[in-house]
Amino acid sequence: MTTGFLLGKFLPLHAGHQLLIETARPMVDRLTILVCSLPDDPVAGNLRLQWVRDLYPDCDVVGHSAIVPQEPAEHPDFWVIWADIVRAAHPDPIDLVFASEPYGEELAAQVGARFVPVDIDRTAIPVSGTAVRGDPATGWRWLAEPVRAHYRRRIVLHGPESVGKSSLGSRLARHFDTVLMPEYGRTYCEAFGTALDADDLRRIFAGHIAMDAALRRHAGPLMIADTDPLMTQAWAIMLLGARLPEIDAWADVADLYLVPALDLPWKDDGTRLFGNDVARRQFMDVAIGELERRRLRWARVEGEGDARLDSALAAIQTAGLTE
Questions:
Q1: 61 to each of 36, 37, 203, how far by Cα in Å?
Q2: Residue numbers of the domain that contains 197
Q3: Is residue 158 a part of any domain in this protein?
Q4: Are residues 91 and 187 in the same domain?
Q5: Helix 306-318 to helix 165-175 angle, to the nearest 10 degrees?
Q6: 293-317 CB burial, b ≥16 within 10 A, e <16
Q7: Residue from 186, 184, 201, 215 nearest 247 by CA
Q8: Which member of 119, 141, 171, 197 has the greatest number of CB atoms within 10 A?
Q9: C-alpha–C-alpha distance, residues 259 and 185, integer Å
Q10: Contact 64, 58 (CB under 8 A)
Q11: 112 and 92 in contact (C-beta within 8 Å)?
Q12: Which pLDDT tens digit goes with each residue over 156-200?
């Protein structure tokens, strides 16, 4: 049986790492992957370990998180230390050591294996973990979906009826070349009407979550959503005078909520219920209350047409969600 070994920080896991792993895997009968981490790494070691395990379930994926020298200049026994780490992760003899860095040759010699270099000059996959950490959007094409999910940021349009959430959401999605999660409550009401009870709102809640999860893998570094379950909770308060415990327990909140102001005229489109000024202001207060009670980041959006879009883009930039 031919055995292989490779190690890396996978900080974060990108297509260059995957090329290394997927080149090594068919060349051996058993491949061990050592995921190395330190306590102060910008991405937690356990998360990176899980990424590799999820993507390569047929490999032996082992973690190492002890503080050890990272470069030969840091310690005179650097290679002895790392040879012992490798033997602890793979006690049996190793036939092949795979690496995309020159260190692989010496590491292979230390453990009595043959070195197999893979894309050391980065010709095939021109990306680095440092570059991805600095600007995930630039390296987006090189990231597997579990890693994209870690870096993806979500922006939700939040607020009462007829404030231009859907129109603004569409414009933001086009601007950032990403997908828009539509307001599932509107879809539901167009199919079943607006006489909503608690069970209807629970169905809207469940439908929104399921569709949002399905859409995420199609999104870019930013994902735009036209409302989320916090607005379903606001509807519950307005319609039923009570909160839904299921939504209070929901925690998958967005990175930023944009709340369009009540500076557009109310329009009846057949699914809207609260058109007078008093009701609109009450609904706005309830909607903002849902954000405040969770201490979420939100920003008000104002203006008409392009000014409204510019207001939203400024809020997104201020929140640090885009360069």
A1: 11, 13, 40
A2: 152-318
A3: yes
A4: no
A5: 60
A6: eeebebbebebeeeebbebbbebbe
A7: 201
A8: 171
A9: 17
A10: no
A11: no
A12: 999 998 888 999 999 999 999 999 999 999 999 999 998 999 999
